[in-house]
Amino acid sequence: MTPAEIATYPDYREPVCACAGYFGVDPDWLLLTHGLDEGILMMAIGLLAKDKSTDAEALIPVPAFDPYFAAAAAVGARPVLVPPLSDFGFPTEAVLASISPRTRLVFLNTPNNPTGQLVPKDAIAQIAKAAPNALVMADEAYIEFGGESFLDQLPQHRNVIVGRTFSKAYGLAGMRVGCVIAHPEALDQLRDVTPVFNMNIVAVKAMQAAIGDAEFLPRYAAEVCESRQRLYAACRRLGLQYWESAANFVLVRVGERAEALVSALAARGVHVRDRSRDPYCVGCVRITAGIRAHTDAGIAALDEVMAGSASR
Fold first, then answer.
1. Residue 219 to residues 40, 123, 216, 287: CA-CA distances in angstroms?
2. Which domains does the chain have, with CATH numbers?
3. What pTM was estimated for this model as a whole?
C-alpha cells in the first residue's frame, strides 16, 4: 500500500479481474460487495426498488441467515418461510409449492447457517426454473468447507446469483469483502443501486493477497474437516445430538441448558453461538470447527462444563 493509493478513490478493475479469474468467471459476471451482506441487500433493492411492487414475496427456507429477513423488510417484501424436513433436510418440494406469481426473491444458503446442511444443486436449478420472475440467491458463504459450487451452472440460469465471501474460509471477516456472481443482465440490477466506491482499498488489497496465497485455503479447510470429526466424536461421547456439517461449524442440541452452557464456556474463553431461541433450533448451540488447537481447547472446556452440569 502506498500513500497515493490510500489518498485516491479506488479503481476496482484490477481486483475485479483478479477475483473473477480466481472464481473462473468473466469479470462482467462479478460485482465486489462490502461483505456479502451488502450483496444480499443490493439484490433486494435492485430488483424491487424500481418495480415498486406492493405484494412481493421473499421465499426463505428456515432456519436462515438474519440478513435475508432484513433485506426483505427493506423493500417491503413479505417473507414466506419454508420449514426444513426432519434432521434439517432441504425441503425442495415445499419450496417449489410455495412459489407464486408474487415470488420475487428466493434465498438459499448452502451450506446452511446454522445447520451446515447443503442445498442440492439440482434443487437450486428446479427452483430457479419454477420462479422465472424472481432472483434466486445461492449463498455459498461456507462452500469452501464442503459441497460443490453452483457456479458451473450459472450460464444456464439467468436469474440465479451466487454469493461468495472472504469472511469465512479466507479469514477476512473484519475487512468486509464479498462478491456476487451472475449473468450480467441480472447483475446490472445490483450495479444500478450499489454505491460507486463501496469497497475500501485496504480491503481490496487484502482480498487480492488472500486469493494469491494458494497454500492457505487447502490447509485451513483440512483443519476444519479434522475439527468437525473431533467435535462429532466429543458429542457422541457426551451423548449430545449433532448434525454432520459441510461448513466450519457444527449444530449441537444441548437442551434447556443452552444459555447456561454458552455462559459457562464464555467464562472459559470459548465462545459458541446460542441458537436456542430460534423456533427451528430449540435447545441448540452452534460450535465453530476451525483450527485444531482451538477446537481441542473448546472440547476440553465443553467436557469440563458438562461434567459440572452432570454432578449437580
1. 29, 30, 5, 20
2. 3-212 (3.40.640.10), 216-310 (3.90.1150.10)
3. 0.93
